[in-house]
Amino acid sequence: MEADIKALNEKIKQESAFVDMLNLELDKVIVGQRKMLERLLIGLLSDGHILLEGVPGLAKTLAIKSLASAIDAKFSRIQFTPDLLPADLLGTLIYSQKKEDFEIRKGPVFANFILADEINRSPAKVQSALLEAMQERQVTIGDETFKLPEPFLVLATQNPIEQEGTYPLPEAQVDRFMLKVVISYPKKEEEKVILRNNITNVVQTINKVIQPDQILNAREVVRQVYLDEKIETYITDIVFASRYPSEYNLANFENMINFGGSPRASINLALAAKAYAFIKHRGYVIPEDIRAVAHDVLRHRIGLTYEAEAENITTEDVVSEILNTVEVP
Hints:
This protein is an alpha/beta fold. The protein has helices spanning about 1-15, 15-30, 35-45, 60-70, 85-90, 125-135, 170-175, 190-200, 210-225, 230-245, 265-280, 285-300, 305-310, 315-325, and strands at about 50-55, 75-80, 90-95, 100-105, 115, 140, 145, 155-160, 180, 255-260, 305.
């Protein structure tokens, strides 16, 4: 068994070498935001989608655009507005006078990387059209069904400061996102570097360091990362503690949690931890990997009651308390 893990570890070290090359390229244009870039890679390697929350101007667009450039993949940015229609997103049938027939015009969703900017600005039918494409990996236009390209990663952003004229995503829809990442302002030193970089005329170009096929191969390798039974128990304990807090010495949260993580939470916690271990060039998952990704996997999967809101308890507090209480293997 030890020999197997040692061999797997060596394999993962070789296979994950491209992660450092990607980071070097992205560091040329993005200062700080290491967590956001890591989470983008986790989503990409686990075949999951990401919901990103942060105030405007924190390099969200730049990050996914740069990642698409470094991977030599097609990038689409869709600005979600109240008047957007599903056809604007997916594509439509257009009558061609030349051919005297309808022809298919594919929408911007046919790309490897989609930036769904301010997804909560559009009504439910547009949101569900995107979420269906995310889930099914295919789009039907007229009576024809088209597969979406691989890899396919949706990065949806939400602006937390404006609530007027928005359509918040329902809890059941939010659950389809593998991770919900909250990003904050850069540190003072980082801001100085950002300032310096943006007032000079030097334009940094991103080199293509890997091909989309390599990402698809890496996904296969990520699945091979070793997950011990003790770690599986740790994952299920964390998720069950969000459902039945009193069974895990968290009786004070009994009236605070409306609903806990779904089975998707357990699956995504395991997959994200495997991808995190891969990024760290390791062939096995350790409890620290689970703890590193737990907030991003669980923060949008736990529903709080009015009592919790009245006492200013957030899902962040609940996840932190669960991680501090559940026994680490």
